[in-house]
Write a structure and sequence with these properties.
Chain lengths: 440, 290
């Protein structure tokens, strides 16, 4: 305790070298912690057999408290100093992560896609993992689809799951009544959902912000309730079962083909393995998600995408520039809905069974949470948020009833830490320097 | 001078004719029986004390308000379009009227260059054929996009914004934002440019630059300009024609010299003078701003 003389004047002793100062601070903090911990932690009362109280000492814990303070105090100081030093530069740690991510977009994308392709063949891959990854990818695709509406066009849509449901039911009904296969029904599901997007879009053209959110929320519920009650067509709460599985270019994944024809395993001369289909589904949704990504990134750089963003920024200025807000809004709704419909079609074929229970408001909320947590308009952020939101409840399974609590706490933490989303950055759709090069 | 349409010899047909425009908000008569004309290749200023109804006139012209009564006609080629019957976005697209706003309305999160390219949305959109040609990068769309970027670059150079082309519009200083908004309006290829207080908040040097810019635009782009402004150095320096409003009515209409000498105008701006000689308007450059 020889270092203690400095304790009385920690505020004034700022002249020493940073290391010795940190050391002094640590010693003081440890001493204070030990003093406080001595009565609070160091002494424990216990019942004595005749109704009295005895006192036990727990000096080990006092040492732990003091040690924690000794290590923690300089760490806090260092963190505060780092933060202060960073202020001129402006960027915080997550902010720098976002700009780093935006600078290395191509590399991150390549690594991400490579990892996604290799995942089913990794030594640690299991059926459970591939299934989980498939779920993540469905949400990634939904997030990218909703990003068009919310992130780009700035139209807050709380009923996005309606389009997901429309896509799923469109495929299920086409398959059940007209014998469509997955690949035949996929474009039609998207189209049907896009039509529903336009149907929703018309009445809400004049609405913005909260009002729009409430109407879309209602729309989502209307679709679900219609599905639930229109029993003759949708099967009501019983849903629709026996939805056909996708085939590999016409080769079904089955032990024995229904018509006695070739199956995937007999065509390739390999043993039947139910995991083939799981892996195949994974690759189908991976391809669909990547196509969605390409499509939305491409649209963003087109006049329609810029008009969406302009609409988000200022609708009045858009009108003054001769942009028709009606078509711009409807196209955003239709595009987002179409992508949701594709995802719904995939969901139906993957589950083989759908019912209105899969399309509750909770789903809309999760998809919106993915977009908002990821950072509005950020494609990479959506992937991160989808992984987080889908796997977090999975990893929390052993905590049973606490996992939704942890989930909520994590979301609050992200919003406090990064109010604009995990990776919120905007890449310009055009660059002046790039536009100039070909000419000069 | 104070009522009816002033006919001007040798100026040809007017580009814009406003006849008996009336705008009523409930019991408030914001604009009452206003008639004036704006000619191609001229700068027409609309001035008046605060609350005189100048911005209301602009909002009627650009379709943000539906006038209660009156006729607003613009000549586009051989046709005459009636603005009061058109949707806001059609006025910009078909009648070729572009405007700026009193409180700047840029696309704040988008870059300066993007702001100028968005303004050319309609030309680009038709070249992209429902986005299909654009999606697959067909040469036709690429050429249209290159033309749009070239036009944006031209205005960036012209407005001195090239250095900041990739910065978000909100990061520009105030004067540059005003210039960018004018450039964005010009990128739509207008026949008539409506500027709502373009010099508000500019320092004297910036105002002088704005004067030069507006004169150059009129001369080179053959765009008629309709201007609301309180800064008399701008109004008197560059206007060919001034319309003065007070309480929603036109009180004077004529050349800067005529307007400056008009007793009604002096009264509206400076109040009644009992026995003193009317103070010329040029002596009162610091008029209240909104």
């Amino acid at each position: 305790m020889a270092a203690l003389p400095g304790a009385a004047a920690t505020g004034a002793v700022r002249t020493g070298s940073p290391i010795s100062m940190l050391f002094k601070e640590a010693v003081v903090a440890a001493a204070v912690a030990a003093l406080l911990a001595l009565p609070l932690i160091g002494l424990e009362t216990y019942d004595v057999s005749n109704g009295g109280l005895g006192i036990r000492t727990r000096f080990g814990w006092v040492v732990v408290a003091a040690a924690t303070a000794f290590v923690g105090r300089p760490l806090l100081t260092l963190a505060a100093r780092l933060r202060r030093a960073r202020v001129p530069g402006g960027a915080s740690l997550p902010g720098r992560a976002a700009s780093w991510a935006s600078a290395h977009r191509t590399a991150i994308t390549a690594i991400g896609v490579g990892a996604a392709v290799a995942l089913p063949f990794a030594p640690f891959a299991s059926r459970y993992l591939v299934d989980l990854a498939t779920t993540v990818l469905i949400y990634v695709m939904l997030g990218w689809g909703l990003n068009v509406v919310v992130g780009l066009a700035g139209l807050l849509d709380l009923g996005y799951v309606a389009f997901y449901a429309v896509g799923a039911y469109a495929f299920a009904l086409l398959a059940q009544n007209l014998g469509f296969t997955f690949w035949q029904a996929l474009p039609l599901s998207g189209l049907t959902a896009a039509c529903f997007g336009i149907v929703l879009g018309f009445p809400v053209l004049r609405l913005r912000g909260d009002y729009l959110a409430i109407v879309t929320l209602g729309f989502g519920e209307i679709i679900r309730i219609v599905l639930l009650n229109w029993s003759p067509v949708t099967g009501g709460p019983n849903g629709i079962a026996d939805i056909p599985r996708p085939s590999f270019f016409g080769l079904p994944f089955a032990r024995v083909a229904p018509g006695g024809g070739l199956t995937f395993n007999s065509f390739f001369g390999i043993d039947y393995d139910p995991e083939h289909r799981v892996v195949f589904l994974y690759f189908v949704i991976l391809a669909m998600a990547l196509a969605t990504n390409w499509f939305t990134l491409r649209l963003r750089r087109l006049p329609i995408g810029r008009a969406w963003e302009a609409l988000r920024e200022d609708e009045i200025a858009c009108r003054a520039l001769g942009i028709n807000p009606t078509t711009v809004k409807l196209s955003a709704f239709a595009t987002g809905a179409m992508l949701g419909g594709f995802a719904g079609c995939f969901f139906a074929t993957r589950q083989g069974f759908i019912s209105p229970e899969s399309f509750t408001f909770m789903e809309s909320a999760i998809i919106l949470a993915i977009v908002v947590l990821g950072g509005m308009g950020s494609q990479l952020g959506v992937v991160l948020a989808a992984i987080l939101l889908v796997t977090l409840p999975e990893f929390g399974r052993q905590f049973a009833e606490f996992r939704m609590l942890v989930f909520g706490a994590a979301m609050v933490a992200i919003m406090v830490w990064r109010p604009r989303g995990l990776l919120s950055y905007r890449v310009p759709t055009l660059r002046f320097s790039a536009a100039r090069e070909p000419r000069s | 001078m104070t009522a009816g349409l002033s006919c001007r010899a040798g100026a040809g047909l007017p580009l814009l004719e406003v006849e008996h425009l009336t705008m009523r908000f409930g019991g408030l008569l914001a604009v009452e029986d206003l008639s004036f004309m704006a000619y191609a290749d001229e700068i027409t200023a609309v001035i008046g004390p605060n609350g005189a109804g100048k911005t209301t006139v602009f909002n009627c012209l650009t379709g943000f308000y539906k006038p209660s009564a009156g006729r607003l006609a613009i000549r586009v080629g051989a046709e005459t379009l009636l603005l009061e019957r058109m949707h806001g976005f059609r006025i910009a697209r078909d009648a070729k009227i572009a405007r700026t706003f009193q409180n700047i309305r840029l696309f704040a999160g988008m870059t300066v260059l993007e702001n100028l390219v968005v303004a050319q949305h309609n030309a680009l959109m038709s070249a992209s054929v429902f986005s299909l040609a654009g999606l697959f990068g067909l040469p036709r769309f690429r050429a249209a996009e290159r033309a749009a970027i070239d036009r944006a670059r031209y205005w960036l150079d012209r407005l001195g914004l090239s250095e900041r082309a990739d910065a978000p519009a909100s990061a520009l200083p105030y004067g540059a934002q005003r210039r960018l908004e004018i450039g964005r309006a010009l990128c739509t290829g207008p026949r008539l440019l409506c500027l709502d207080e373009p010099a508000a908040g500019l320092n004297p040097r910036e105002s002088a630059e704005l004067n030069e810019l507006l004169l150059a635009i009129r001369a080179e782009e053959r765009v008629a300009i309709l201007l609301i402004e309180h800064d008399m150095s701008v109004v008197m320096g560059i206007s060919d024609h001034i319309v003065v409003l007070d309480y929603g009515r036109k009180i004077a209409d004529g050349s800067p010299a005529e307007v400056r000498a008009d007793a009604n105008v002096v009264r509206a701006y400076l109040g009644e003078e009992e026995d003193e000689a009317p103070v010329p308007l040029a002596a009162a450059p610091c008029l209240p701003r909104q």
